[in-house]
Amino acid sequence: MATPHNQAGTNEIAESILLPGDPLRAQFIAEHFLEDVKQFNSVRNMLGFTGTYGGKRISVMGTGMGCPSIGIYTYELIHFYGVKNLIRVGSCGSIQESLKVGELVMAMGASTDGNFAHQYRLPGTYSATASYELLECAVRSAREHGYSCQVGNILSSDLFYTETPEWKEWAKMGILSIEMESYALYCNANRAGVRALGIFTVSDSIVTGEGLSAAERQTGFTNMMQVALETAAAFTE
């Protein structure tokens, strides 16, 4: 069933999907990690592919930048295409000195400076959390491979360029890193009763100024991709 943002037909998308923000990263994952790949979407150049990993059927699709964009794509994936396991893979900026460039971050929870949850008319502030089942599996995979990772709370910010160093206030609350999408992903998944998790590679440190190049961000996150694929496969029949 096609939507305004996805041309996939019935059963063209697997129940487990990886969600990088960059559609070219989705293409990279499909070409380098999946077998028997078929492209299911190119609307707005938001590329989506389905293939197999270890004999398990898995999809990968770009989501764009920010909560509004991933909010649209994941809502459609869940409600129109029956996706049950959604794993965001992306980059993040460290705001803790102990979290180094190249390390993995598993987002147990996502805070936000945005207003995505206002639609639910909740009488308070919503705490958006990952699926414990996916989180447990991903942490185990990372540790078995010897990949350095930290688990904790992240910030899904609406702001990339800011007038003030607001990250310092979030750092005081133990926030590990900043990205832009997971809060909406977790809200959509929690509301629908499906599983979601954000796995990140630290691409830069806001504390020290260290960082990776654009090319390294696009193709160099293979540890994160491997962990995400193994986690997705574990929840795919």
From TrEMBL:
Catalytic reaction list: a purine D-ribonucleoside + phosphate = a purine nucleobase + alpha-D-ribose 1-phosphate; a purine 2'-deoxy-D-ribonucleoside + phosphate = a purine nucleobase + 2-deoxy-alpha-D-ribose 1-phosphate; uridine + phosphate = alpha-D-ribose 1-phosphate + uracil
GO biological process annotation, one example: purine nucleoside catabolic process
Binding-site list for a purine D-ribonucleoside: H5, E179, M180, E181, S203, D204
InterPro entries documented for this protein: DeoD-type (IPR004402), Nucleoside_phosphorylase_CS (IPR018016), Nucleoside_phosphorylase_d (IPR000845), Nucleoside_phosphorylase_sf (IPR035994)
The EC number(s) this enzyme carries: 2.4.2.1
Keyword terms: Glycosyltransferase, Transferase
A cellular-component GO term for this protein: cytosol
GO molecular function per UniProt: purine-nucleoside phosphorylase activity; uridine phosphorylase activity
Domain Nucleoside phosphorylase: 17-235
PROSITE patterns: PNP_UDP_1 (PS01232)
Sites where the protein binds phosphate: G21, R25, R44, R88, V89, G90, S91
Residues forming the catalytic site: D204
Site (Important for catalytic activity): residue numbering on this chain: R217
Subunit composition and interactions: Homohexamer; trimer of homodimers.
HAMAP family the record matches: Pur_nucleosid_phosp
Role description: Catalyzes the reversible phosphorolytic breakdown of the N-glycosidic bond in the beta-(deoxy)ribonucleoside molecules, with the formation of the corresponding free purine bases and pentose-1-phosphate.
Family that this chain belongs to: Belongs to the PNP/UDP phosphorylase family.
Protein name: Purine nucleoside phosphorylase DeoD-type
Species: Fusibacillus kribbianus
